[in-house]
Amino acid sequence: MKRSTLLHLRFPFSLFLLPVFLFAVAVCQAPMNVNFLMVFVILHFLVYPASNGFNSYFDKDEDSIGGLKKPPKVTQELYLVVTIMDLVALGLSFFLSVPFGFMILIYIGVSRAYSHPMIRIKKYPVLGWLITGVFQGYFTLLLVVVALTGTDPFSLPMSYHLAGSISTLLLFGSYPMTQVYQHEEDQKRGDQTISLKLGILGTFHFTGLLFTTATAGFLWYFLTFQSVSLVYIYLACSGPVLLFFGWWYLQVRKDQSNANFDNTMRLNGISSLAFITFFLVWWLGY
């Protein structure tokens, strides 16, 4: 495998979606068994990296992209590798359970439609934002629960749907921030992203509003379905995210060039670590 292919799979960047997996694990209090490990591998070492590579293959970015500051040129090998990875993911998923397999098939199909030039959901600002938030949040949380509990996806309790909706709220807020430094590159390709429509400061305001809404949703969920102690743990874990976001916002107000790749990756890293910590404490502690 060429070095460029491996880089474009962006395995470390896939771990930014680990909090959704852990949220599902905490909600259903799943044990760490073979199914747990298989779902983790399927998502974070096959589906997500293949999605990253597929997106890179058709975008052919020259400037920084998520998890890759200086992307190398893509080759035909990348397309072959991501196709094989998706096929392996589907085989393992259907082996685990038929409902899970069909849900992974839907996820891969939507992921490809997001980037493929024949459809390219990505070029539609609101639709791209909605599709990404729903499928990386709500849909992913439910498919993990289905795989780990063996429950039919159409008979899941309402609490799971509410948890999935909250995770989508978080994705609705965080997704525009991943685009805030890519305005020039997106304009060159003709992709009208939600962040481009909002503008740099508008993206910060929009994300702040949605993160506040998601936090209110989390607190209500904990008080209704879980324990009040989770409220305090959540607030403690999310504190560093708020501090960095506030500091970064002030820097961008002084100079919009601070809305760059490095600060975006710092926010992604801090928020991912904070939520990974929280969901692990919830899962292991309860």
Would you give an account of this structure?
The termini are far apart. The longest helix has 27 residues, at 228-254. The chain has helices spanning 3-9, 11-14, 18-28, 34-59, 76-96, 98-115, 125-149, 158-177, 183-189, 194-198, 200-225, 228-254, 261-285. α1 crosses α5, α3 (18-28) packs across α7 (125-149) and α8 runs antiparallel to α11 (200-225). It has 286 residues and is mainly alpha-helical. It is globular and about 45 Å long.
> End-to-end distance, in Å?
43 Å
Anisotropy-based shape: globular
How many strand segments?
0
What helical percentage do the residues reach? Answer: over 70%
Q: What is the number of helices?
A: 13
Major β-sheet profile:
none
Helix and strand run? HHHHHHHHHHHHH
Rounded to the nearest angstrom, the radius of gyration is 18 Å
Q: Indicate the structural class.
A: mainly alpha
The chain-level mean pLDDT equals 90
Low-confidence stretches: none
Beta percentage is under 5%
Task: Give short descriptive properties of this protein.
286 residues; mainly alpha; 13 helices; globular
Brief characterization of the structure:
With 286 residues, the chain is mainly α.
